[in-house]
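thread from #wetlab-drylab

HS: before we spend reagent money on co-crystallization trials with heme C, can we at least see a predicted complex? here's what I'd submit
DV: go for it
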Amino acid sequence: MMKALVPFLCAVAAGVMTLASPAFAQDPAAIERGQYLYIAAGCEGCHTDTKNKGEKLAGGGPLHTPFGTYYGPNITPDKTHGIGNWTDADFLRALRDGVSPAGEHYFPVFPYTSFTKMTDRDILDIKAYIFSRPAVARADIPHDIKFPFGFRFTMVGWKLLFLDKGPLAPDPAHDAQWNRGSYLVRAATHCGECHTERNILGATRRDRELGGSPTGPEGGSVPNITPDEQTGIGKWALDEIAETLSSGLTPEGDVVSASMGEVVANTSKLTEEDRMAIAVFLKSLPPVRTPPRAAKAQ
Ligand code: HEC
Ligand code: HEC
């Protein structure tokens, strides 16, 4: 009996070996889908020190926030400095729960508050793409966080209050185009991370979704992109919104700059259908009126 089993087990083991090896040469379709979402989500921007010609995904330049300065870590498949040892479950937990393989809580400057709304498949396709990229041995730069925001355990309470874990459920009251737009805006392209005002604990205010923020990523204000006619983009036609996401040109004849310029570098690579889906979703939002702010002291 045992003797008969041995060749069988060997054959199974050989089968497992050939099944296991594609972990290195992943499914090309998954990598391609992952690349598209990776661009939509702008992973590269925060995890690459573009200013100093740093290698892709090997660690980002400084991200200044009211809570301190953060550096996107190395997320190349390097086994020592990057995430090369991570399993699918580890990667899912980081993006869905904001928790590291060692059980530490990430700070929400890593926009997992939006990425949590992505589907498992989309998250794992992004992992497949990242793991198809070259490994780079570069150590992470430690964050420089203001007291008392540096304590990772305080994130437990913060998450209980503010982390609305996904994936985003499709809304049956709306059609497929709207749902695609909602998914892109709220999950992958995380527009609200900049366009939604934050409360004093740094969480986005759900009651003012996409209604603009006085404290954007570079300290400047970020415009209201709800359909409010006076303070938002209510007067913009759908194809004008899609055009801004494609060329950066607004119907007012301006070209978006600063961090929105980096966003457009990514949204310009999306399909026309996806840009239109984003526009349709934005136009359907409840309009938010931006209150007039006190003029800035010169
Ligand atoms: C707005 C900037 C920003 C964007 C966009 C961003 N990240 Fe990050 N990411 C960070 C920062 C900052 C950290 C470190 C968080 C911490 O230390 O608590 C981080 C941490 C991570 C980690 C944990 C790494 C480790 O060593 O523990 C992973 C994995 C990750 N990001 C993947 C991604 C992926 C995938 C995307 C795109 C879907 C992405 N990030 C987009 C800023 C960003
Ligand atoms: C990293 C921060 C950031 C993210 C993410 C972001 N934006 Fe922006 N957005 C800005 C800033 C800053 C401006 C103002 C740019 C300027 O004044 O040149 C802006 C401007 C705009 C404008 C022009 C509004 C106007 O009144 O002129 C539109 C439309 C827009 N964003 C849509 C989006 C959409 C849709 C997304 C998600 C796909 C998005 N943004 C994601 C920061 C961001």
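DV: The pocket of heme C (ligand 2) is lined by residues 185, 189-191, 193-195, 216-217, 222-223, 225, 233, 241, 244-245, 250, 256-260, 263, 267, 278 (CB under 6 Å).
HS: ok that's useful, forwarding to the group
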